[in-house]
Write a structure and sequence with these properties.
Layout: H1 2-6, H2 16-26, H3 29-37, H4 39-43, E1 60-66, E2 71-73, E3 76-78, E4 81-87, E5 93-99
Antiparallel strand pairs: 1-4, 2-3, 4-5
Length: about 100
């Protein structure tokens, strides 16, 4: 910040209160909790499994997760993605897919 303050061509540095307003505006409560207290605090704000179960197949939830491991795919290292869907009523997993592309 000192260098930015000394450079006449640099844009103005926002005030601390402006930064705080931007964080409150742009980050979810869960993201803010995670930054303050860690991953367990962030997960306490997740909505996973919070939808009211009515009957089987009425509501599904899905997730698409980049897995932090490397696997050999035809001689090349790649990091896989896992995608899955569950039925909110029964918590049964209906579909899962592992791919090396984001799609």
């Amino acid at each position: 910040m000192q260098r930015a303050a000394e450079d006449p061509d640099a844009p103005a540095v926002p005030s601390l209160s402006t930064l705080h307003r931007a964080v409150r505006r742009d980050l979810t409560r869960g993201e803010r909790a995670g930054l303050k207290s860690g991953e367990a605090a962030r997960r306490a704000h997740d909505v996973f499994g919070q939808r009211p179960p009515t009957h089987r197949n009425a509501v599904w939830e899905g997730d698409h997760k980049h897995v932090p491991v490397e696997v050999d795919v035809e001689g090349e290292l790649a990091t896989p993605w896992v995608t899955w869907f569950i039925d909110c009523h029964s918590a049964a997993q209906f579909r899962a897919r592992v791919s090396v592309g984001a799609g």
